Amino acid sequence: MKYIKAQAVFPKELLKEIQKYVQGEMVYIPNPDGVRKQWGEDSGYREFLRQRNATIRQRFSEGSTIDQLTIQYSLSYDSIKKIVYSKR
Question: Are 10 and 1 in contact (CB under 8 A)?
Fold first, then answer.
């Protein structure tokens, strides 16, 4: 969570109203219900894993063995097996 100055975000009227309740403290304002991002969406890691797993499946279908893929991707035998045999 990063710190943002209230003056940069809120209109002056709203800031004055908030200051009636809280002065000089940090306040957490949660996202509205249903507006939550999934794991890895901001960093792009979710997409990276999706592409990596698609490549692993492709190489397996082209004849690479699970043992070869474990070495190439530095993953365990069971991890590669889950990726290769998943229904995605």
Answer: no
